[in-house]
């Protein structure tokens, strides 16, 4: 039976027993519009902990009466709560509860509850409101002080160019926190929320904490928190994916101008007001240039290997070294910008690290061989370079991973590889045991390396080899031991491995879409929400490294350095921006209304209650309310200032966000209805002289 819920202010008892019933009464969280993030997390955690007190699966919370209280919470948040940090707080709690391993499944149930409430809350909003909540960044507790010092040369300008995506901290934090690794970062985020949720009944102690425990989440938006929390179901929802796709296509941008005092804020792109060079940060164009860069990389690689000059470094090889250096520096910059958490989520970054390692080994062996005139070492260097193709060719084709078909296979192969490595532990144990026995029994005829090769051939399917030599190994123990080994390797182990991998594929393929959309979302966020204003494409990134990096060692960092980087970016990337402008001009000709996806609901597009706000039960006054005006597309200006209150709730409850297939089916049904109406109109007017249009 669902729990009765009521609204309660912070500081009141969280449970009460009715005098005529033993059913618990849980009060809904009273979240004010001006509550800070830490207060929102505290209040929501109290309610979630009260209503989710038994282990429940995700499907039970989503489809059965076990999730009735979650629906009540969604209704309450939609009707009465206007705090912009609601979704951020729910996803932070999802991360906190998901990291708890209590052995009973209660933490996982609460994590699923937070994720369900987060996406159901978004489905009750218009598209523009969903963008407001998803891209709202948690402000720093001392934002006012920072705004007055925004132009301070000591920590302005260039500091924004170097801050990592997941390394935002408050000024009260340790200055070395930006340099902590990703594992420490995850623990830090987990502990920050734990400080608020451990003492559940001390609701009045929130303001008494000396340090803000949520400072680690400063300047993170809801999508970034979802990526950290592995909220894959949330990220795979249609309403969220529409926002991420808008960022991918450049409909939503974070930088609109390249000036010294530009600030990173989410905006809707307007080509008539935005700086054309801001399009360099669009993830779609970043990926297109990345493919072109790797194609040039591959051509230089083949050219050097075909030429393969043992005695001197050719100009083509020098150009290959330049490409390697630019690639290496770009990867380092990407790691610093994104942080280790986002960087490790992209499987292709593993290929990049291996390519860099191979390139470094090749360069070292090549230079040492030429310096010492040891040409055998030079030959080894070229042999090492030939290994680069194993990773460079798939890296060039990594663009296919953005396709739903190919991108779905990658998570499956990844999980199957993990299961295969685990199974190989058993194989190695059996292999070593039989190899030791065969080597000792047949030591007079076969050496250990020879026997190791024979056993390896048998394991990979050459069973006849074992039957041919089993009596040579030993006439007494050889035949039975070889028969047992062949049976184990060819039938039992291989059959078990095949069945296990098949089950792994079947298990993962059911959630492969969520895995694919998670990797895709991480890439989009990694490429777009970095705090680096001037992002140089490789190999142009070597120019600011050689020009400005040495000067910063001599002169203090100030606005002149940032202005110099901007001028250098405009001079070197003007052709790339020109190509982008031509592409967008042609695209606009084909689809002139391409940015209508985020213009918000039009008049009558959503059904709203016609009752005035005053007739809504338990409606509390909302200070500072400003209605959202229905206007034409705005200029490229800040859109995430503060999510506005919603005056009227929707009539019907919107459950889980529709999938892409459901959306397409709905659009197709609407087209069929219009076509049917047209046919009926034509048939009804066929007996008259005029046909209605």
TrEMBL record:
Highest taxon listed in the record's lineage: Eukaryota
Name of this chain's protein: Uncharacterized protein
Organism name: Hypoxylon rubiginosum
